[in-house]
Amino acid sequence: MSDKIHNPNPKREPKKSDVVKSIEALGTTNIPINKGDIYFISIIGEIEGHSLSHPQKKATKYEHIIPQLLSVQRNLDIKGLLVILNTLGGDVEAGLAISEMINTINKPTVSLVLGGSHSIGIPLATSTNYSFITPTATMTLHPIRMTGLVIGVPQTFRYFQKMQERISSFILRTTEISSENLKKLMYDTDEIANDVGTILVGKEAVEYGLINEIGGLNSAIKKLEELIKNK
Q1: How many structural domains is the chain composed of?
Q2: What is the pLDDT of residues 74-109, one digit of tens each?
Q3: Could you list the residue range(s) of the whole structural domain that residue 77 is in?
Q4: What is the 3-state secondary structure (H, E, C) of the chain?
Q5: Model confidence pLDDT, tens digit, residues 39-61
Q6: Which residues are known to be catalytic?
Q7: Does residue 13 form part of some domain?
Q8: Is residue 3 part of a domain?
Q9: What pTM was estimated for this model as a whole?
């Protein structure tokens, strides 16, 4: 006789649901909300690109956002996109690439800045058809910064100059701000200690033409629904 006791209900390893798998693989459930008519994407913390962010930092991964944007463009059930932002900035190439993808989606898009959308987060906020910022949220404009060892100073300077031109060109193309004001805000030396740039709070971002309107979540959703209806 066997010493083993038969257990009619043996414990089994729980199978991972498709939702859990999606979260692990893409950082999202990838399930459209509101019966599929509006898709929500949040970009928070540091925008992580080709290099990994510090493990203790909140980060939005470049490779997580791209498949979602592709889904928004291709899924016929999705009628519009709402992008919610609270980011410190991060990888410039990744942030600009995401901004270009959002800007070329042929469906209504709206962005909402909560907390802040700094540095490369500015093109992300302006990439949509219409943009909102809460009264207490901030946006920081500054030139591209260099870190680490610089090899071939004139060549490196030209590379960063070209990158800055790409960012400025995108902002000017997607906002109402003038080229003169954009340069002035980026290179101001009176606003940030030991650095150049400007911090704009809520209403100031609207007054300069970077953002369309002051508002919160309700306003952003209503505007997106209006754009969908008109389309």
Answers
A1: 1
A2: 999 999 999 999 998 888 889 999 999 999 999 999
A3: 18-230
A4: CCCCCCCCCCCCCCCCCHHHHHHHHHCCCCCCECCCCEEEEEEEEEEECCCCCCCCCCEEEHHHHHHHHHHHHHCCCCCEEEEEEEEEEECHHHHHHHHHHHHCCCCCEEEEEEEEECCCHHHHHHCCCEEEECCCCEEEECCCCCCCCCCCHHHHHHHHHHHHHHHHHHHHHHCCCCHHHHHHHHCCCCCCCCCCCEEEECHHHHHCCCCCEECCHHHHHHHHHHHHHHC
A5: 999 999 888 766 655 666 676 88
A6: 119, 142
A7: no
A8: no
A9: 0.79
